[in-house]
Amino acid sequence: MKDKDLIFKSKLSMEEIDDNFKDYDYYENIKASLEEVLAYEKGNPSPGTFSRKRSLPEVDVKAERESLAMTQKSFAAVLGVSTRTVEAWESGRSTPSPTAKKLMYLISQDHSLVERLIEGRRA
Questions:
Q1: CB within 8 A of 56, min separation 6: which ones?
Q2: Cα separation of 51 and 85, whole Å?
Q3: From CA 113, how far away is CA 15, in angstroms rounded?
Q4: What is the predicted pLDDT for the residue at 9?
Q5: CB-based contacts of 76: which residues, under 8 Å, 6+ apart?
Q6: Please, what are the domains in the chain?
Q7: Largest CA distance in the chain
Q8: Most CB atoms closer than 10 Å: which of 26, 39, 100, 118?
Q9: 98-109 vs 112-122: helix axis angle to the nearest 10?
């Protein structure tokens, strides 16, 4: 693989990318990270140090599916899981994977993604 193959391409403009990071305080984040490393070296790791749990959005699977007026079968197809998996999530027998949670969260924010996912399956 050549370096030119590693170039990240984004649909966002440079202004949009800059806007996404406008409130990001690099100094404070680097400082906090270094403080965590020092605490870890002293045997006093802060909660979550080096094993951070990703904060995942909470999604009510049944409510989201119903807001889209979809059956369990069609919702499962859009998410790329089985109908039984959706049934298990809705009944509380299991929980969605981090990837499924993220996808459902994105769908909850923009219902037009469902059509795009359906079209992608047809292609």
A1: 98, 101, 102, 105
A2: 28
A3: 24
A4: 61
A5: 82, 83, 85, 86
A6: 13-53 (no CATH), 61-122 (1.10.260.40)
A7: 56
A8: 100
A9: 120
Residue with tokens 């899981």, as numbered in its chain: 81
pLDDT for the residue 72: 95
Place of tokens 């999530």: 89
What pLDDT is recorded for position 76? 93
pTM for the whole thing? Answer: 0.55
Here the tokens at position 55 are: 């904060």
Residues of the chain with pLDDT under 70: 1-10, 45-55, 121-123
pLDDT of amino acid 92: 92
Which residue intervals of the chain are DSSP H helices?
14-20, 26-41, 61-67, 72-79, 83-91, 98-109, 112-122
